[in-house]
Amino acid sequence: MGDPAHADLLEHARLGLLYEGGDFSFTDWTEAPPLAGVRCVGTGFRGARLDRTAPVDAVFAQCDMAGAGFAGADLRDVQFIECDLSGANFDGAQLAATVFMQCAMPRARLAGAQLSDAIFMKCDLSQARFSAARIDGAVLMECDLSGVDLSEVSATRLMLTKADLRAAELVGLRCDTVLLVDADLSGRDLTSLVLTRVNMMGANLTGANLAGVDLSGSFMKGCGLAGANLSGITAPQAHFAQSDLTGASLVDAKLSGANLMETRLGQADFSGADLEMAVMTGAIAPAARFQGANLAYAALAGARLEGADFTGATFKRTDLHRANTTGTLHFGATGETLGTDPHRAAAELYNPQQVRRAAPER
């Protein structure tokens, strides 16, 4: 490239100097010397071609890079700070420890990209396309993800905070050890997803369809799941404590060892569910249905079970200590339950602040 401006930029990079201004819009860098280590501020790269280049360890701050092409590029340790990357093409790019800080990236393309420990902080990723991307460590913090395409993405160690995913494309998304705290997935059909070991604490899943989804080991404390369809889910050891499952369907759910402490379960349907060794202490479950459910060794101490239906259920040392079982149905139920232990109840009710001192003997 014989352009003096190009040579000047490369010389700045060689000397480790900051390059300000300049306009390289619609230029082609695919055959140029590598841009590794460049430091650009306020520089124009609109529509530039950087496909398959390797500007590793570069910094682009407040640069206009709308429509730029980075397809197949090696972007290790590159930082984009307050850049306009609207419609930029990162398809198949290598994004290892790449940082995007407060960038405008609507309609950006990252299909098939490889993300490893990448960071997107307060970026506009509306309608961005991550389809078929492979993610092993990435943070998307406080980003606009409206209409984002995450279809067929394979994600491990991904963190999304306060993500509104109600309009996102999620078909085939496979998650393992992913953080989706406070995400909004209300009303979504999530039946094609894999959500093993996912932390969805505080997420809004009201009315969502999760039928048959693998939630093994997932952490869903404090989630809104009222009216959700969780029929046939695989969720052994999953954590639903303090969540709202009012009216939810958990028919034939696999919940062995699951934590449902202090969960709202009014009118929830657990018919045929496997609740062996599940912890449901303090659950609020009036009129819940447990027809044909396996409740062997389940802990229901202190639960409110008024009007619950245990027809055909299987009990085995099921703990009903201090549970409210007024009006429950047990037709055809088998096995034994453990009732209230008076000594345990006295210990639980003991309040030293309310104990009066004995009157002194005269």
Features:
two-stranded parallel sheet, mainly beta, 362 residues
Which overall shape is indicated by the principal axes computed on the Cα atoms?
A: elongated
Radius of gyration: 28 Å
Helix/strand order, N-terminal first: HEEEEEEEEEEEEEEEEH
In round numbers, the mean pLDDT is: 93
Largest sheet: 12 strands, parallel
Strand content: 15-25%
Q: How many helical stretches?
A: 2
Distance between the first and last residues' Cα: 108 Å
Binned, the helix content reads under 10%
Low-confidence spans = none
Total DSSP E strands:
16
Secondary-structure-derived class: mainly beta
How does the SSE layout of this entry go?
Blueprint: H1 4-15, E1 18-20, E2 39-41, E3 59-61, E4 79-81, E5 94-96, E6 99-101, E7 114-116, E8 118-121, E9 134-141, E10 154-161, E11 174-176, E12 194-196, E13 294-296, E14 314-316, E15 318-319, E16 337-338, H2 342-349
Parallel strand pairs: 1-2, 2-3, 3-4, 4-6, 5-7, 6-8, 7-9, 8-9, 9-10, 10-11, 11-12, 13-14, 15-16
